[in-house]
Design brief:
Elements lengths: L5 H20 L9 E9 L4 E6 L5 H10 L8 E8 L13 E6 L2 E6 L2 H14 L1 E3 L2 E11 L5 E6 L8 H13 L4 E4 L18 H16 L3 E6 L9 H16 L4 E5 L10 H16 L9 E3 L12 H8 L5 E4 L10 H11 L3 E5 L27 E6 L5 H16 L6 H12 L4 H9 L20 H12 L5 H24 L3 H32 L3 H24 L16 H17 L15 E4 L9 E3 L3 E4 L2 E7 L4 E5 L4 E9 L8 E6 L6 E2 L9 E4 L8 E6 L5 E5 L1 E8 L18 E3 L5 E4 L5 E7 L5 E7 L5 E8 L2 E5 L8 E7 L4 E8 L1
Helix pairs in contact: 1-14, 2-3, 4-5, 4-10, 6-7, 7-8, 8-9, 10-11, 11-12, 12-14, 13-14, 14-15, 15-16, 15-17, 16-17
Length: 837
């Protein structure tokens, strides 16, 4: 197998590719302009440039121009003319619209406002390059404008808010990619929400707000400060004045954009007519009286389509001043954004929606990073929305990958390519190790099963090769093309974290993703080991297969340890990587190989009943459903579609022989009908009814489970088809205090074992067996001795040597009535399984 060479080859490839993509990055303009013509000719200015045209151009933009271009201090110069745009088409009169022409005679920039000049300067910085120490420029003509007026992020997630330094860096990043909105609304800021929204910020926090507003102004970003009063607001003049007073204090700190949030509340604060009255009052008494503030933004209580069951939105649409902007998350709390969905809400609220996109926010899946492409955004939706902000992760630097995509989409909707934007984002954010970073991001995309029913593509290019490999492997073949592809991938995964650590200067990003980088390296090592294990089995080398099985087991155990020890303040706790495709593949391959090892001439691998946490069913629809496994839980991953259960079909779960069930929970909507029975079994063969489970309940928790149970199932005991949903089917287990450790040698679970201590002897009777296999592990310094005992007490050594896989055929012990197993050394050895044939 070629995977032994993968690591070195991959590291070389990563290094070469990193350089290649860095070179590609220097040619890009981000976001892609609406209209651009670039000549193949480049131009080296013979002189520096001198500003001409409008008086007092924006100082921040001029600073960028001087960073991008040589400027003349005296003598001959080329003109850099800045003038007002004469194009009166609506799109070219938007804030930020500009034209840029680079010729050998000079540069001309046409602008609407200061934002226009700032964005033109950013484009020039991306176009200008160095060649042998000299600036070179492409001869080009650009006409550019944003499709969405307000573009950026809303810090609106639950959990740890961004640090002040994170926010400053985010604002600078937005300026570089022409985003113009940062909406400040951390759920855990008590001065933004209850209980202290009426109170002024303490001095230190107020100074931070002032610094953020100042930095935002330098980068042409609207710093929007949001208040969230709905949990305890009183609909009276006093609280109306409290909000005006708070806004006035924020205005004094430099804030020029404001929002009021009424999301995630209920009761009195959710009344739409009261909200509209308050917002109209704020608009009239504060917003309209300031000449330098942006339109007021509000987040409604019914902020997505699945919750819009009343006339709430219609009341806002008719009663709210047309100048006030209304936020919207889509068809659900977490959802793709479609033109149809936006037009639906626009008709209700009687204005273009201000989109609050809940991606890449991960407050519902904090054991995952969402580093994938920003897709699911309708490229036909231009003109349907006035604003679009992304709700990011609590990890500000890691969120830049998705935010970059949002920047590309909102500027040029019709030409948006999410995959290309994702690749460009990886290059832009980590040019020093772009391919390593891209590999990391590609396999950290999906949030896992979640209540929002929102899943993302992950490892998409490897789904088919994995299926091909597993299908072939289960038929005792070794699909080499798929194996080589996967072997290369796992070598790249193994190498990527160290390349990111050593090559990227972005220490804050590394700090934020570090638990996942650690886990990612183990994922790569586990995948490589698993492929070696599978190849050894294909080569019919059980001894080497067992060695690689133990190595893979140790690596998977290390991943479990990381999951139990890092990121433990999260909900859910832990660190998941490659969780949608790659990690399940490794586990599947590992378990299939375990069944292969335990198979005999009389028992095929698919007939081996392994004592591990698992799901089992005879319902085709559920056979590919993943198992949700924790340290002491096993169950089905929720399936949000109707499951058809024919008579005598079942869905079940099983767990380790050394554990007993502490409780069993089910949530099976529409299953509460006659004929539904729950059963338990000790061996998976003989079944007993679990009593006192009412057929009236579709959801319940059962604590009185027989301690001998190792399997539970729900079976259709009627003569009619059942249709139900599987939203929950989970057992919580605990260690069985009565378990005999010796059973671990015969539990058909290679992950468990009995310790064989020095001086201890284990006896095996030789009656009616044709062969016996031992699966052993332990220190290389320890030896194992297997001695045969005859009927008259005579002893002879049958095997003495290293621990590992040992198989004794009948000819080796046919003269003996029993075998004795002992260890030679000071440390115990582990007996994982004894298989008698």
């Amino acid at each position: 197998m070629k995977t032994l060479k993968y690591l070195l080859v991959t590291m070389l490839l990563l290094g070469v590719c990193s350089l290649t993509h860095s070179q590609k990055l220097s040619l890009g303009i981000f976001p892609e302009p609406q209209e651009v013509t670039i000549s193949s000719q480049t131009y080296t200015p013979p002189h520096g440039y001198t500003l001409r045209g409008i008086n007092n151009p924006d100082a921040d933009a001029v600073k960028l121009l001087k960073e991008a271009l040589p400027f003349a201090k005296s003598g001959k110069s080329l003109p850099l003319e800045i003038k007002k745009l004469k194009d009166k088409t609506p799109e070219m009169q938007r804030s930020g619209a500009y034209t840029l022409a680079i010729t050998k005679k000079g540069i001309t920039i046409g602008i609407v406002d200061d934002n226009s000049l700032f964005y033109a300067a950013q484009t020039l910085k991306q176009l200008a390059k160095y060649d042998e120490g000299k600036k070179i420029l492409p001869l080009c003509s650009i006409k550019d404008y944003p499709d969405v007026l307000f573009r950026g992020t809303v810090e609106g997630f639950y959990g740890q808010p961004w640090s002040h330094a994170d926010r400053i860096e985010q604002i600078r990043f937005y300026g570089r990619i022409k985003l113009n909105t940062y909406l400040y609304g951390p759920k855990d800021d008590p001065y933004h929400s209850s209980p202290n929204w009426r109170k002024p910020y303490p001095a230190e926090e107020a100074e931070h707000i002032k610094e953020l507003a100042k930095e935002a102004a330098h980068n042409k970003v609207n710093f929007v400060w949001a208040i969230h009063p709905g949990q305890d607001i009183q609909w009276d003049q006093a609280d109306s004045m409290n909000i005006l007073s708070k806004f006035e204090k924020m205005y004094d700190l430099g804030v020029r954009s404001f929002a009021v949030f009424f999301d995630d509340i209920s009761g009195e604060g959710a009344r739409p007519e009261k909200q509209a009255g308050l917002l109209n009052y704020i608009h009239k008494e504060f917003i309209s009286k300031k000449n330098d503030v942006q339109p007021l933004i509000m987040c409604p209580t019914e902020y997505n389509r699945s919750w819009a069951k009343t006339d709430y939105l219609d009341i806002l649409g008719t009663q709210l001043d047309p100048a006030i902007q209304i936020m919207w998350t889509g068809d659900r709390v977490v959802a793709d954004i479609t033109k149809e969905g936006v037009e639906w809400v626009n008709n209700r609220i009687r204005r273009p929606a201000y989109i609050w996109w809940n991606f890449p926010v991960s407050d519902y899946c904090q054991d995952h990073l969402l580093m994938g492409a920003a897709y699911g955004l309708d490229t036909q939706a231009a003109g349907t929305m006035t604003g679009f902000v992304s709700n990011p992760m609590e990890y500000a630097e890691a969120s830049k990958v998705a935010i970059f995509g949002v920047g590309m989409y909102t500027w040029n909707i019709k030409n948006y390519d999410p995959t290309q934007a994702w690749k460009d984002a990886c290059d832009f954010i980590m040019p020093e190790a772009s391919m390593a970073f891209r590999i990391f991001c590609e396999h950290n995309c999906d949030p896992g099963p979640n209540g929002h029913q929102y899943r993302r593509e992950e490892s998409a290019n490897y789904v088919a090769p994995i299926q091909t490999f597993l299908t072939g492997y289960k038929k005792n073949t070794f699909p080499e093309q798929s194996a080589n592809l996967l072997g290369t991938l796992f070598a790249q995964i193994t190498a990527s974290p160290s390349m990111i650590y050593s090559q990227s200067p972005n220490k804050r990003l590394i700090e934020q993703i570090n638990p996942w980088l650690i886990q990612f390296e183990f994922l790569g090592k586990a995948g490589t080991s698993a492929l070696h294990m599978a190849h050894a089995w294909y080569e019919k080398d059980r001894s080497y297969t067992w060695q690689r099985y133990l190595e893979t087991s140790a690596l998977l155990d290390s991943m479990k340890l990381i999951n139990r020890t890092l990121n433990q303040k999260a909900q859910p706790k832990g660190v998941k990587v490659g969780s949608k495709v790659l990690h399940p593949f490794i586990v599947d391959l590992y378990r299939q190989t375990g069944r292969n090892l335990l198979s005999t001439d009389g028992i095929a691998p698919d007939e081996v009943k392994v004592s591990i946490p698992s799901i089992f069913t005879n319902i085709d629809q559920l056979k590919s459903q993943p198992c949700a496994e924790g340290d002491n839980t096993v169950g089905y991953v929720p399936l949000f579609e109707v499951v058809k259960v024919q008579p005598n079909q079942y869905l079940g779960i099983g767990w380790e022989i050394q554990k007993e069930a502490e409780s069993f929970c089910f949530n099976l909507p529409k299953s509460n009908q006659p004929g539904r029975v729950f059963e338990w079994s000790a061996d998976g063969k003989s079944w007993s009814l679990i009593p006192h489970v009412s057929t009236e309940n579709a959801k319940d928790t059962i604590c009185a489970i027989d301690p001998k149970a190792r399997y539970i199932r729900m079976r259709n005991n009627s003569d009619q088809q059942m249709e139900l949903y599987v939203l929950g089917f989970t057992a919580t287990t605990k260690q069985d205090p009565q378990i005999n450790e010796a059973l671990m040698m015969y539990d058909m679970n290679l992950d468990t074992y009995k310790n064989l201590n020095p001086g201890e002897i284990i006896h095996i009777k030789c009656d009616d067996i044709n062969a016996v296999s031992f699966f052993l592990s332990g220190s290389n310094e320890n030896l194992v001795s297997i001695t045969g005992l005859s009927q008259d007490g005579e002893k002879n050594i049958v095997y003495q040597g290293n621990v590992g896989y040992i198989k004794l055929n009948k000819t080796m012990f046919e003269d003996f009535s029993s075998l004795e197993i002992t260890t030679i050394g000071k440390e115990p050895i582990h007996i994982h399984q004894i298989v008698r044939e």
